[in-house]
Amino acid sequence: MAGNDWINSYLEAILDVGPGLDDAKTSLLLRERGRFSPTRYFVEEVITGFDETDLHRSWVKAAATRSPQERNTRLENMCWRIWNLARQKKQLEGEEAQRMAKRRLERERGRREATADMSEDLSEGEKGDIVSDISAHGDSTRGRLPRISSVDVMETWASNQKGKRLYIYTCSLHGLIRGENMELGRDSDTGGQVIKYVVELARALGSMPGVYRVDLLTRQVSSPDVDWSYGEPTEMLTPTNSEGFADEMGESSGAYIIRIPFGPKDKYIPKELLWPHISEFVDGALNHIIQMSKVLGEQIGGGQPVWPVAIHGHYADAGDSAALLSGALNVPMLFTGHSLGRDKLEQLLKQGRQSRDEINMTYKIMRRIEAEELSLDASEIVITSTRQEVDQQWNLYDGFDPILERKLRARIKRNVSCHGRFMPRMVVIPPGMEFHHIVPQDGDMDGETEGNDDHPASPDPSIWSEIMRFFTNPRKPMILALARPDPKKNITTLVKAFGECRPLRELANLTLIMGNRDGIDEMSSTNASVLLSILKMIDKYDLYGQVAYPKHHKQSDVPDIYRLAAKTKGVFINPAFIEPFGLTLIEAAAHGLPLVATKNGGPVDIQRVLDNGLLIDPHDQQSIAEALLKLVADKQLWTRCRQNGLKNIHLFSWTEHCKTYLSRIASCKPRHPQWQRNDDGVENSESDSPSDSLRDIQDLSLNLKFSLDGEKNEASGNLDNPLESEESAVDGKSKLENAVLNWSKGIKDSRKAGFTEKAYQNFGSGKFPALRRRYYIFVIAVDCDSITGLVEITGNIFEAVGKERMEGSVGFILSTSSTMSELHSSLISGGLSVTDFDAFICNSGSDLYYPSLTSEDCPFVVDQDYHSHIEYRWGGEGLRKTVVRWASSITDKKGESEEQIVTEDEQLSTNYCYAFKVRKPVGVPTVKEVRKFMRIQALRCHVIYCQSGTKLNVIPVLASRSQALRYLYIRWGVDLSKMVVFVGECGDTDYEGLLGGIHKTVILKGVSSSASSQLHANRSYPLSDVVSFDSPNIAQTTEGCCSANVRNALEKLGLFEG
């Protein structure tokens, strides 16, 4: 066959196997008792190159077939299968190469355009300001506090922190998290890099001076499949070293694990299945934070709520949650990715076993990547463990460009405008470890460790006998590997290297601690496959008596396992293909073990600091064997590596980590709910929600403006140039602003405007706005083709709850992509009054209004406090210019002429929403492509196609209609669980955010359009990765949206009796 000659040659080699050929140059891999076997070469090199276990099984069956004809037929079929795999792999590699080339061109073009916008050139000195100056172990220590190297320095630093009372919030959603006896390696969600790291970080931070409380929020799991402790709502973490700061301890101080119930009840599920329940976690976490802020306010805040100083998300799912919480609370966000989705996607594509769609279906990888991109949009600081993570992994993301980041940083230092562009700060802080309880093993297997007064000799730990029972000669040095049986941990290559190196087998034993298991059949298919491969290799190389692989160990046994390896003068190895950091390397070094580790990832940085071992290529088994043999055989090298590790290990202490961590938090601009601040000397309301007094109304007058589209008259949204903002503010002294002053004066002057009597007459209890006294809040967020359709549906919903509406127990909010002026005219023409509603969420969630009961000319007031929540990283005029330039490039060619498809709509644009008309929805880029364009330009915004794709709204990145609902909860105490959101079967491209959470959702069947459905056709991930449609909080009308069907859906949700 033309182009497939190599297949024919392999086929002939297999079918016509003759006598073996002696070849002195043939490698050990190609030899079989001194004879070259084409058959073996074909199986081991070609088949295993695709890592297809089913092909190996087919080979075993073919080899066992006695009939030559049948065997040849089987082998020929295998050839064709492998040829097909090779073709698929080559196709995937070609497609990936094209994507990478396109991505490089897009990034270079975006960088050029951003640089052109930022017209001022950088000096040579500024060009040298590189990201590495923030490395924890780099040559430069600029911006870092002095290293804690003595008790005196620690006491001095601690005394400077005593006046602080910080509340820090961290979250890690998946896996099983508890303070003691962590089940590390139980499954792929219980790795040490996430589970152990987040617990130890919270514990260490809780013991630091100046930190009052640390909350680690995770999922509550009350399942018979796991221990009961994971169902406990609260667990206090025992402090490690807080004796010197006991005077700072208070009633609620310290570090705590807070477990939030979300997702399927009574079921432990993998992280890939948690994505549809993220919004539910966010709402639950928000409730906890608000309650805790009030408690801490009573204890240490003088009655003022104490908000978190930062919100730290760990891994992509928690990063997504932290971004939403950060936006809702207006609190700085930190993010640690641990393991990144784009890097994993590239690795899986290189293997050639699965297509991109298959990978996405298995790992929900596109949902994960989008969460990481959103985390980049929202984070002020991204904490990484190594430089490799910054240079090679984060560099894969649209939202981070190290070259553009350096330019932006230089401009910020020069106090020069960045034209609306922002980039998170990458900070390298290696994970820490507690060393005070570790006593390095000084004895050996020939003599027991001598006891002394401080550390008397004790019986050998039980785990020692559990391991040593595997060995024929337990006194040989132990090569220790501690990792779950995951393909990426590369344990099989380690066993192969050990089995094929006779000198190494003669000198050492191999111990594999591969998590806990009861039976192989009960393990996941991937882990079981790896373990079976290891057991087969042990049998193949006859390693019985030389390899230990115990089934069980406790987390408390791990230090004893390290001690046993050190006692035998052994070596610790981490042969993973890529290791994000390598906490086990730090632990092993602290116990006096030399290291052999992969050269890909964090171990490079660790080795550079500790200088206590060798780096290897994880794909080269000969390199692995030689490095192990070198350390085991050369006792002087072993001793030198051990001493170097023990001498330098303090550089990875938790104290050092937390000190750098806290200094980075201190560098963030403090942000918290804006209405708590008092910058103008005006005595604002101090309570979380205003009290039932006239002073509350007076307070509100300071932050609410009369408006029909009042945002047009606010200070300019351009945050880059304060001079422009000042001028705009002066020019903006319009009659609307004067109306605000007159309004507040009218309150003080009692009856001048007739407000006082009307206030108590119309508000009843005097609370403002009225939604605070409703039992239920109905949010009408139906994205109709026209506002007229929205008014009709609103009338049906009014009719469905007519009785409750008249009683005042149900309030209503309209949520739409339209402006307030458009909405107002439609309400009037539809026979509805503005007073029928308690609030209006307009412009896709970028503006929030309340009806005014005191002004006929200006029937609405705009909530400026809401703008302070969403303006973080809003690009202002710089963003607008870039979007206008992008819009001009979207054209429709008609013969020789070109028609611009997307045009700016200045009339409908506001300071926090840039509106664009779309003349031809089918001809515009998808929302994910527009979002990608903005991120490459370092512009942080939320792009929404609305009104069946005929309009494009560009709003702040953390503004949305769903975030506006959370703001109402924080600002006015509106219970989210008492909200009911009405949506259609489809909607604008922010539709997905309205469905999840603890609120109730009613889906109106048949209310959508084909155009709206088309907006979601090119999603990166299916809607099922965002929303759990089998949730008890979601109901769907049977047919249409008549009042009877709406009432039935509400009864299904248990809101009203039938």
TrEMBL record:
The keyword Thylakoid does not apply. Residues 94-115 have a biased composition (Basic and acidic residues). Residues 94-142, 441-461, 671-694 are annotated as: Disordered. Coiled coil: none annotated. The keyword Transferase applies. Its EC number is 2.4.1.14. One of its GO terms (biological process) is sucrose biosynthetic process. Residues 805-990 form the Sucrose phosphatase-like domain. SUPFAM superfamilies: UDP-Glycosyltransferase/glycogen phosphorylase (SSF53756). Residues 473-646 form the Glycosyl transferase family domain. Residues 170-434 form the Sucrose synthase first GT-B domain. CDD domains: GT4_sucrose_synthase (cd03800), HAD_SPS (cd16419). Pathway: Glycan biosynthesis; sucrose biosynthesis; sucrose from D-fructose 6-phosphate and UDP-alpha-D-glucose: step 1/2. Plays a role in photosynthetic sucrose synthesis by catalyzing the rate-limiting step of sucrose biosynthesis from UDP-glucose and fructose- 6-phosphate. Involved in the regulation of carbon partitioning in the leaves of plants. May regulate the synthesis of sucrose and therefore play a major role as a limiting factor in the export of photoassimilates out of the leaf. Plays a role for sucrose availability that is essential for plant growth and fiber elongation. Belongs to the glycosyltransferase 1 family. Homodimer or homotetramer. This is Sucrose-phosphate synthase.
